[in-house]
UniProtKB/TrEMBL annotation:
<protein>
    <submittedName>
        <fullName>Uncharacterized protein</fullName>
    </submittedName>
</protein>
Length: 341
């Protein structure tokens, strides 16, 4: 008899992050039925024409998603029926990318359906029509709960992946490496430029990867540093974690559209890396310690205080706090199961 918990995992493709989530569920003993939303490829020219008219004439922006969901259901039906029993959970991450019909269909196959919007609700307003379809709906930005009391929203955070059993890499290089990876956002160019200017004064080895789409290539001139590596595509998330392990310091530039904590913050506590961030909200969490996390306000950095921060030893967080933000604790909370199971 199979005592494994079963879960349907549905989320958009995001630089290998979706694969890592599926692997972590499997690592913790789940039977995973995995649906990864990928960019839609038209099967025939008439589909592309139909989508153009629906989108631009009738304002129907969900046609491609519905077509993709229809095809996905055929495969999911086979995977579900093969198990010959009702699935325990369905977890939708970024449910705004899935049609309401698709979510309802999957809901009929499972005992409990959970949604998690790990981006701000107002950034992707299609999500509002889907919230009440779920048994439970989670957000990572506290402001979403304050701004939308009409919905039964629950608060969670992001997490670190606890599948890595050897997260601590001892480094002895004299020159410290500082690492950032992220997309080009006009609203954070100024902060990046100001920080790099300060980093140069502290003799830090800068490893900044900024994704810049080809149509925005002229925006490279907005950055006043030659040490930035511009990339056309997101790097795989597993490669990102290798870069994290191989760095001394991580930097987190907040995205102004939300105030929730990014994955970078949880990576920093798991891999025991110093973190520099302009997200002041982090000081409200129990994972914050002034020896580990340096908060600045986007203005000129006090070089002396930053140097003092970097010279202090890393403060090892109590295991109770560290475990609180693990993948296992996260899924146990959102799925509503006993963490010791």
């Amino acid at each position: 008899m199979n005592n494994k918990k079963s879960i349907i995992l549905a989320l958009p493709e995001d630089a290998g992050l979706s694969n890592l989530i599926a692997k972590n569920f499997e690592y913790h003993g789940f039977d995973v039925i995995y649906y990864r939303r990928q960019p839609y490829k038209y099967k025939r020219p008439t589909e592309k024409i139909a989508n153009f008219f629906r989108k631009n004439i009738f304002g129907d922006k969900g046609y491609k998603n519905r077509q993709q969901d229809k095809e996905a259901l055929e495969k999911l039906n086979y995977d579900i029926m093969e198990r010959k029993m009702k699935i325990d959970y369905a977890l939708f991450i970024r449910p705004d990318t899935f049609s309401i019909e698709f979510i309802k269909k999957i809901k009929g196959y499972v005992n409990k359906t959970i949604g998690y919007q790990w981006d701000g609700l107002d950034r992707f307003p299609d999500v509002f029509d889907r919230i009440e379809v779920f048994n439970d709906f989670y957000v990572f930005d506290p402001k979403d709960i304050l701004n939308h009391p009409e919905y039964d929203l629950k608060l969670t955070t992001n997490f670190y992946f606890d599948i890595d059993q050897n997260p601590i890499l001892i480094k002895n290089e004299a020159k410290k490496t500082i690492y950032f990876v992220g997309s080009h956002l006009p609203q954070r160019v100024s902060a990046i430029n100001k920080f790099i200017e300060s980093a140069d004064k502290l003799n830090l080895q800068i490893n900044f990867l900024i994704r810049l789409k080809q149509r925005k290539i002229r925006d490279k001139s907005l950055y006043n540093s030659e040490c930035i590596n511009f990339i056309n595509e997101n790097i795989d998330y597993s490669e990102n974690l290798n870069n994290v392990k191989d760095s001394d310091i991580l930097i987190d530039f907040v995205n102004n559209v939300h105030s929730g904590l990014s994955f970078r913050i949880f990576e920093s506590i798991f891999y025991q890396k110093k973190l520099i961030t302009n997200n002041t909200e982090v000081s409200k969490y129990d994972l914050y310690h002034e020896d580990n996390i340096y908060i600045w306000d986007n203005e000129k950095i006090d070089i002396d205080s930053l140097r003092d921060f970097l010279n202090k030893p890393y403060y090892i967080l109590p295991s109770k706090i560290l475990n609180k933000y693990s993948f296992k604790t996260w899924y146990s909370s959102v799925l509503g199961i006993d963490e010791n199971q």
